[in-house]
Amino acid sequence: MAIYKRLSSSLENRDVDAYLDLLHEEGTFVFHKSGAQFNKTEWSELAAGALKNEGFVQLASRCLFETDEILVTHAFMMYPDGSKEAVMAVLMKRDEKIIRMETGCTPI
């Protein structure tokens, strides 16, 4: 089942519950730049804070590839400090949820 549309909708609507519902209980979330890793509880706290912050804005997003096992996206993001990044994300899927996500960002 496609996750991209539900993921995009949750981000666009700042729907924390819909976003968190996409995350697998055993999920791992990795920032490529720092190597920091988060479990679902830790990631949920970060994501909820970001979605509640009006300065965190997804300017554009597209699905590059999606199957039942993997989703690859590319987005342009703006952050509360006004900085912008191009973000590549690789999301591994299990049981129609995100089990692992790794992001790589390039400042623009």
Describe this structure in words.
This protein has 108 residues and is α+β, with helices and mostly antiparallel strands. It contains three helices and six strands; from the N terminus they run ααββαββββ. A six-stranded mixed β-sheet has the order 2-1-6-5-4-3. A hairpin with a 3-residue loop joins strand 3 and strand 4. The longest helix is centred in the middle third of the chain and has 13 residues. The chain is globular and about 35 Å long. The termini are far apart. The relative contact order is 0.21. The mean pLDDT is 95.
Properties at a glance:
alpha+beta, 6-stranded mixed beta sheet, 3 helices, 6 strands, 49% strand
- What is the overall number of helices? 3
Low-confidence stretches: none
Q: Provide mean pLDDT, rounded.
A: 95
Number of strands: 6
Radius of gyration: 13 Å
Query: Portion of residues in helices?
Result: 25-40%
- Sketch the topology as an H/E string, one letter per element: HHEEHEEEE
Oligomer: single chain
Structural class: alpha+beta
| Ends distance | 33 Å
Overall shape: it is globular
Largest sheet: 6 strands, mixed
Write out the strand line-up for the largest beta sheet, numbering strands in chain order.
2-1-6-5-4-3
User: How much strand content do the residues show?
Assistant: over 45%
Short note summarizing the structure:
The protein is of the alpha+beta class and 108 residues long.
Topology (SSEs and partners):
Elements: H1 4-12, H2 16-21, E1 23-31, E2 37-39, H3 40-52, E3 57-66, E4 70-78, E5 84-94, E6 97-107
Parallel strand pairs: 1-6
Antiparallel strand pairs: 1-2, 3-4, 4-5, 5-6
